[in-house]
Amino acid sequence: MSAGAALGWRASWSIARRDLNAGFRGLRLLLVCLFLGVATLATIGSLTASITSEISARGQVLLGGDVEVAMTQRQASPTERAAIGALGTVSDTIRTRAMARRTTPVAGAPEAVLTELKGVDATYPLYGSLTLARGAYRPLGPQDAIIGRALSERLLLQPGDTLRYGEANFRVAAIIADEPDRVGEGFTLGPVAIVSRAGFARTGLIQPGALYETKYRIRLNPGIAPQAAVDGLKAKFPNAGWEYKDRDRAAPGAVRFFERMGQFLSLIGLAALVIAGIGVSNGVASYLGQKRGGIATLKILGATAQDIARIYLLQIAAATVMAVGVGLVAGAILPVAFVALAGDLLPVAPGLGIYPLPLATSAAYGVLIAFAFALPPLARARTHPAAAQLRSGVEDGRGVDRRTGVQVAIAGALVVGLALVTAREPIFAAAVLGAVAVVLLVLLGIGALVRRIAARLPRPRRPLLRLALANLHRPGAQTVALVIALGLALTLFVTLAAIQTSLNAEIDRAVPQRAPNQFVLDIPSDARDRFVATVKREAPEAKLNIVPSLRGTITAFGGQRVADLAELPEGAWFLRGERGVTYSDVLPQGSDLVAGQWWPRDYAGPPLVSLDREAAAILKVGVGDTLTVSILGREIEAKIASLRQVNWDTMGFNYVLVFSPSTLAAAPHSLTATIEMEDANEGKVSRALLGAFPSASIIAISEVVGQVRTILDQMATAILISASVAILAGIAVLVGAIAASRQARTYDSVILKTLGATRWQILGAQALEYALLAATLALLALGLGGLAGWYVITGVFEFGWAPDWGIVLATLGAGTLLTLGIGLLGSLPLLSVRAAQALRRL
Prior knowledge:
Elements (H helix, E strand, L loop, with lengths): L8 H11 L8 H30 L1 H5 L3 E6 L5 H8 L2 E15 L9 E9 L10 E2 L11 E5 H7 L6 E4 L2 E11 L13 E5 H7 L9 E8 L5 H11 L6 E4 L5 H39 L1 H9 L4 H38 L13 H28 L2 H6 L10 H21 L3 H31 L6 H11 L5 H32 L7 E7 L3 H11 L4 E15 L2 E2 L17 E5 L7 E6 L11 E5 H7 L6 E6 L2 E13 L10 E3 L1 H4 L5 E7 L5 H11 L4 E4 H40 L1 H13 L4 H38 L8 H27 L3 H7 L1
Parallel strand pairs: 3-8, 5-7, 14-19, 16-18
Antiparallel strand pairs: 1-9, 1-10, 2-3, 2-6, 2-9, 4-7, 5-8, 6-7, 11-20, 11-21, 12-13, 12-14, 12-17, 12-20, 15-18, 16-19, 17-18
C-alpha cells in the first residue's frame, strides 16, 4: 500500500470481511442493543397495525351494515323508517341493560346477573354470521333466547334451561360462540343475550322513559356511498339527534384507543432504542479499542482516514443489517404469540400478516440510531494518528470533528422527523422525545461534572477510595457513559414503580370509603315512593339518591354547530354521541357551584342549564352563553346559568348537563338511584327490587370496579413490558461502558496486581466507584423518574398522582443493587487476567 493511495469500496470490504471471519464477537453489544430496540418497535407497530387493520377490514361485519343509524329512548317514526329503508336492506335491533334471572334456583349460581339484552329482527345479521357453539343460527322465535358463554357460566345455564327477563320467560336455545357485531356495540357492563324483536316486546322492559337504544343497520343499494347516505339523512332530518357510523368507522372508540396506546408504547420503544444507541456507541468504541493496534498498523502502512472509515463502517453496517434484520423478523413473529396469549382480551382476533409500514419504520429507526451513535467513535478512529491510537489507553483523545458532528445532527433530526410524521399526535410525540433528550442531556452534564469534581477533590488516604476516585477521572475513564447507564436504569425503575403504584391507588381513590353499593336503572318515573318503600323495608339504614335520567346529544355551543366542526376540541369526549342528562331544582350531590347562580325551586321560565366547569373551559363558553341539546329527537336551546365543579370520584350521579326542571319534567323519562347500605343487605334489596320492578337493572359497584381494575392492570402490564426493554437497554449501556473501558481497567488491574494488590482489593475499588456513582444518581433518579411517572399518569391517562413512595424507594434500592451487581459481574473477568499476557498485548 503506497502512501496516499486510497482504497476503493471493494478492497475495503475485502479487508473488513477478512477481519470479520472470526464472527461479530467484538460487536455483540451493538447487535444486542439494536435487536432489542428494533424488535420492540416492530412488535408494537405490527400488533397495533394488525388490530386496527382487522377492525377496518371487517368494518361491515363489525358494524352490522354499511351504515348505522342509532337513537336513544325512541324508535324511528314511520316517515323516518321509510327514509332509512329507501337506502337499502335494513336490520332493526334494539338494545338495553336488563337483569337475567333463573326461573329455578341452582346452588352456586346468583339469582340475577346484569346483561346486555338485544332484540333482533329476521334480517339480522346483514353481514357476517352469528356463530353458535352447536348448530347453525336461524331466526329466533318469540320464546327463544341465545346467550353468551359468560352468561351461561355465571347463571349455570345450558340449552333447554329457562331464564327470565322482565315479565317474560325464555328458553335457552343455544350458546353464542361469536357475535359478529360485538365490537361495534361498544363497551358493555355484562354478558350478552339475544332474543327476537317479538320476544323483546314480551319482556315489558320498554316503559316510558326507559333507557334503550335502537339501531338501524343498512346494507346500501348498489351505487350509494356510505358518506352520501349519511349526508342525505342528516339533510332530511337535521334535528333528529341521531348517531351515525359507517363501515369505515365501525368501532371508532376501539381504533382510537389502540392507536393511542400503540403510539405511547411505540414512543417508549423509541426511547429504549435511543438509550440502546448509547450502548451501540460504547460497543463500537470497545470494538475499535480492541482494533487500535490494527488501525495504527494500517495507518503506518499508508492507509488514509477514508480507508479506515470505509473498512470499519462496512463492518458496523454489516452488524447493523444483521441486528435490524433479526429484530424485524422477531417483530413480525412476536405479535402472533402475543395474540395467542391475550386470547379474548383483544376486541378482534388479528390475522396473520406482514405489515410493511411499521417494519420499515422500525428498520429506519434502527439504521439511523446505529449511524448516529457509531459515528463519533468511528470518527476518532479515523482522525486520530497512529501514535494517538496506541496511546489511547493512557491518555484522553480529542473530540469528534465538525463533519461528524453535522452528520450526527442530521441523523438525529431524521429520527425526530420520522417520529413526528408517523405520530397520531405530533405534539405528544415531541413532548416525549423532548423529555428523553432532556434526561440524556442532564445525565451527560452530570457525568462531565462528576468527572471534573473527582479530579479536583483532595486525594483520600485510604488506597481503595483513592483508586475509586481516580477511576472516575483518569484518561480513558467511562464516567459519563456509566452515569448515563446507571442514571437511566435507576430512573426507569423509579418511573415504573411510580406508574404501577399510582394505577393501583387510582382504584382505591376512585371508590370512596362511603361509595354507593348499587346503581339502579330504569325505575318508572311514577314509582318513586314505591321504590323508596321497597328499599327501606329491606335496609332501613339505606341512603338513597334518586335522580331523573334522560339521554341527549350536544348539537351546538356558543353559536356553532358540532356537525360543522372539522375536528372536535381536545378533550371534548362529551361531544361524541349521547350522554346522560338530568334536571334538578337544587344543586346535585357531588357538585360545587363555581360560577353563576342556581335557579329558584319554582322557576318556570326559558330553558336553563348548568354545565361542568371543565367542559365549559374546553368549549370556551361560560355563564350567559347558549347550548343546544337534542333530547328524544327535539333540539332544546338553553342558556348556561351556572358552572359546577363535578367531583367525579364520588361514584355517585355526576352529569355534565343539569337542566332546570321545567325544561324536561314533562318529557318521558325514568329514574336512576344509588343505594348506600350495609353490605349484608345487598342481596335482600336486589331480590325485593327485582320482584317489585321487573324492568329495573341493578349494577353492583364491585363489578364496575373489577372491570376498571382489569383494564388498568392490562395497561400497566403493557407499559411494564415495553419499559422493561428500556431497562434492558440501560443495562446494555452499562455493559457497554464496562466493555469500552476494559483495556484501561485491564492495564490498571495488571499494574495493581504487580504491586501486590489482591483480587478483592481490586474488586473493592470497582465496587466503591459504582457505589459513589449510584449514591450520586439516586436522588436525581428519584426526581426524574417521579417527574416522568407524574406526566404519564396525569398527562396520558388523566388520573390522579398518588404513588406509594415506600415501594418506589424500595424499587430504587433494589435497582441500585441490581445495577451494582451487573457492574461488578462485568469486572470479574479482569481479576483472572495474567500480568505477562496482558502486558504483551498492551
